[in-house]
Amino acid sequence: MDDLKNGPNMTRRAFLAAAAAVGAAAFLYSNAPGVAAAIEKSGKRLLWLRGSGCGGCTASMLSGGNPEVLTALNKIKLELAYHDGLMGQQGVFVDGSPAGDSGHNSNIRLDELVDEGGYVLVVEGAIPNGPEGSGRYCMSGATPFKQIFMNAAPGASCIIALGTCASYGGISRSLKVADATGVSFSGTSRMEGAMARYGLNNNVINVPGCPPNPDWLLLTLADVLSGADVEVDAYGRPKAFFGSAVHESCPRRGAFDRALRDDGFSEGNCLYNLGCKGTLAFADCPTRRWNDGGSMCTQSGGPCVACVEPSFPDAFMPFFSKVESRGILGDVDVDTGAKIIIGATVIGAGIHAVKRLAIGESGREDEKGGKR
Amino acid sequence: MRITLDPLTRLSSGLRISVELKDGFVVSAGCSGMVYRGLEQMLLNKSPMDAPYFTQRICGMCSSFHATASASAIESACEATGTVPKDALVIRNVLNGFGWLKSHLEHLYLGFMPDLADPMYRDILNSSDLGNLLWKELKNRYASPGGEACSDALRCIRSISRAEGILGGRSPGSPVIVPGGVTSRPTRGDIYVLKDCVEDIKAIVQKRLLGALSIEEWLESTHDNGGEHAFKYLESLSRDDLSEEKGWGDLPLFMMFCSRMLAKDTLSLPAYIGLDELGGYPLDDQLIGFLSYGSFYQVRDGYAPVEDSQAGSFVLPAGFTPGGLQNINSAADRLDPGLIVEHVYASFYEDGEGRTSEAPMDEETVTVEKADAIGYDGIKYSFIKAPRYGRVPCETGPLARLINSRENLIVDTMRKLGGYKSAGYPMASVYTRTLARMQEALLLCRMLQGWIDDDLEAGDGIRRCVHVSPKPGSSGRGLIEAPRGALGHWLRVGDDGRISNYQVVAPTTWNASPKCGEMKSGPIELALLGCQTTPYGYVPGSEANPVGLYHVVRSFDPCVSCAVHVIRG
């Protein structure tokens, strides 16, 4: 732990900045023993719960990153103690009563882990409260997921909301009757998030994305486990990954600057006219890229849909409509809005202003909720 | 005695299985999907063009398949299926081929096979030397975590994802499959990287599944010529050493030792796991049908909608085969999408005005919005609906596909199993389902290499997308095969140009369906009937760890996030 905090040649701050700047591979290959030692001291385990979602976050973790998540966890000696998609156990009831022991029964395993406490909790998928506040639109082991989450949250030393559903409700929030929320937010509102609703107050870090990049999770985990106070933005996201607009470093930025814009798919230039929301989406996809650094959405011709943003997906649909032609800029004069986006000073404050206007945020939360 | 598996893990979450045992045999079974998201309701009043990006979020494993089915539904609504450029179809094939292979490997090595390393098998297999050898292999390969096969599979999955990312931008959740074609424009450099990835992927799959033989050698004898070559090959392998190096890759090892018919009945070996006795359908398979929609486009401009797919638009044909071994002696029935209906009798939806079943395009279903109505003890017990083909519940997936294409290895294996003495073994079982998935993984390697080596073209001058725009009042459907089976998207555009009806019937909707209005059980429920808690019958203590039941359900590779769907609240 001390090694990590003070490192031989680096300040702690510089160390964490360096960790975020490189891929998980570079970080883990050089720092795994240090993180492993820190975990051994803290006795932490990883408890991974999945609510209402598509399993895409887990699939993404297995699909990229170098190494993929299981090998990475193994490297830092963090035990994946519960994950319903990957564990050996399953829930077994005989005549209504839980059968066997934690070696075979996942429900017993979960109860034991929750009783012990002290784990890092990863939540994937949204938390539905419907219908009628029962949470029965998502059940596991005859228990609403809402209840499972409420049981597990208090014992967590840190909660990581993985993916846009767990962070903000995401796709799952689009169905009103499901009344689904993220862990600490519902859309841009903290008051509506599960933590506030259920009166819980653990530290929550959001790692959004539909799906999230595996590096974002692994590096956030490494930061958390090494005892860091991860710096987050107004929406609870680590600033290190979600600090600048996709548009800033987009592989097609050159085409944008030369005003070469596509009006049909697969033409090869800037995707702005096809509805690209890269100007409103804050993530390091263009520099980090995906699946071992091969490519990213806009590079392969897919307009960015801003899947890391709290108001995804509803605020960014129709996906293929231009930002200024679809009313998300509210009362702003279209010319002004377009100038902000298209103008030379597209980065920094200008982009933030557009973003707030776009998703109906006053920006006040920025001042309060910045650093956690 | 009632055994309930909830959650059944190592699959997409939310599956609950409940069985009643009498004298050690399952006499009734219920299969419940317990996560409801309502993607189709969310799509109402949205732009039809948004559907591929939206629906690919139904499933993180099958995102490219949902995108493809959705794009096809829009192309069919625009009557534009004949105009989608060849180069777009090749890229869709490659992306879907990679996703498909990845799904099979994840299911086999992270989902299904770990059950074969359950300590129960150690206690049973240790009564013979061969059994001890077998147990050693099962444990070293499939134990979760730490099995060699699992780490090989993870390595392969990463390699596949890297390849998917190059063409798809990222995986899962790639944005490149759009109505009218694809968005990506691979460079020559990209194609070289893909070729490299395919070599790497094939090497791992070959080492894992076949051990000593090459994929080409195996397919040439068993797929191109006949399944009997596989039996001869198995018998020629040394049984003093069951390592991959001696030829006992995962496929031969499984094919030999997970069959009672081959290992015990035919060769009198002292060690076997009788998965060929497990998970068949009662009444000689006749209550069931095998359904496939057809998949992978022929390499040419345009494709025909599935009604005409028998005319040859797809590499893997569409078709329907009724249960019963005699039915594989003639060609598969032509698929009639008009026969597809859904029931909500046992599902948590309000029945529409007394109608028991409806075609997907016409459904007007209302979700149960009372908390008390969601439970397990009433008539309704699942969020999954009950699709039927005509009146027949259908199994869908690798086994159904290989049955409908009359694939040699599977068809010959079923004939051998079914013809064994008078009793016979069921044509569909945990054994044939898993064998089909393995054989299909090998076939995919061959197809992928073909598309990438011969058909994928680089360059900016190539057209990879045509403009499509669904007209108000139009409707369409996109029927394709996903790794788990038949996947259909139905779309209707309202007079305002927005989606007025969207419907998804996913593979697991078929396989994990509850009872229909005629009280017919779904395939997983039927396959559980008559099962015991282990492949060796009842073993003391096995009610708390009923490995036999795990095998049956997991052999279908269920995916609940896909399966649950509804339209209109």
State the end-to-end distance of chain A.
Answer: 22 Å
What would you call the shape of chain A? globular
The largest inter-chain interface, given as chain pair and residues per side, is:
A-B, 86 and 90 residues
Could you give the order of strands across the largest sheet of chain A? 2-1-5-9-11
- Count structural domains of chain A: 2
- CATH topology of chain B, what is it called? Cytochrome-c3 Hydrogenase, chain B
Proportion of beta-strand residues of chain A: 5-15%
Structural class of chain A: alpha/beta
Series of H and E elements of chain A: HHHEHHEEEHEEEEHEHEHEHHHHHHH
Which CATH architecture of chain B would you pick? Answer: Orthogonal Bundle
Q: And the CATH topology of the largest domain in chain A? A: Rossmann fold
How many separate helices of chain B? Answer: 19
Structural class of chain B: alpha+beta
Secondary structure: helix percent of chain A:
25-40%
Looking at the overall shape, the CATH architecture of the largest domain in chain A is 3-Layer(aba) Sandwich
- Evaluate the radius of gyration of chain B: 23 Å
Q: How would you classify the quaternary structure?
A: heterodimer
**Number of DSSP strands of chain A?**
11
CA-CA gap between termini of chain B: 38 Å
Shape, per Cα inertia axes of chain B: globular
Percent in strands of chain B = 5-15%
Cofactor (chain A): [4Fe-4S] cluster; [3Fe-4S] cluster
Pfam families (chain A): NiFe_hyd_SSU_C, Oxidored_q6
Binding site for [4Fe-4S] cluster 2 (chain A): 247, 250, 270, 276
Binding site for [4Fe-4S] cluster 1 (chain A): 54, 57, 165, 210
Topology at a glance:
The complex is a heterodimer of chains A (372) and B (569).
Chain A: H1 2-6, H2 12-21, H3 24-42, E1 45-50, H4 56-63, H5 69-75, E2 79-83, E3 92-94, E4 97-98, H6 106-116, E5 119-124, E6 127-128, E7 139-140, E8 143-144, H7 145-152, E9 156-162, H8 163-168, E10 180-181, H9 194-198, E11 204-207, H10 214-225, H11 239-242, H12 253-257, H13 285-288, H14 334-342, H15 349-358, H16 364-369
Parallel strand pairs in A: 1-2, 1-5, 5-9, 9-11
Antiparallel strand pairs in A: 3-4, 6-10, 7-8
Helix pairs in contact in A: 3-10
Chain B: E1 2-5, E2 15-22, E3 25-33, H1 39-43, H2 51-55, H3 63-77, H4 86-112, H5 119-125, H6 129-142, H7 148-168, E4 177-178, E5 181-182, H8 188-210, H9 215-225, H10 228-236, H11 250-257, H12 260-266, E6 289-297, E7 314-322, E8 340-343, E9 349-350, E10 357-358, E11 366-367, E12 386-389, E13 394-395, H13 398-404, H14 408-418, H15 430-455, E14 475-482, E15 485-493, E16 499-505, H16 507-511, H17 523-528, H18 547-554, H19 560-563
Parallel strand pairs in B: 6-13
Antiparallel strand pairs in B: 1-2, 2-3, 4-5, 6-7, 8-10, 8-12, 9-11, 14-15, 15-16
GO molecular function, one term (chain B): ferredoxin hydrogenase activity
Family (chain B): Belongs to the [NiFe]/[NiFeSe] hydrogenase large subunit family.
Binding site for Fe cation (chain B): 562
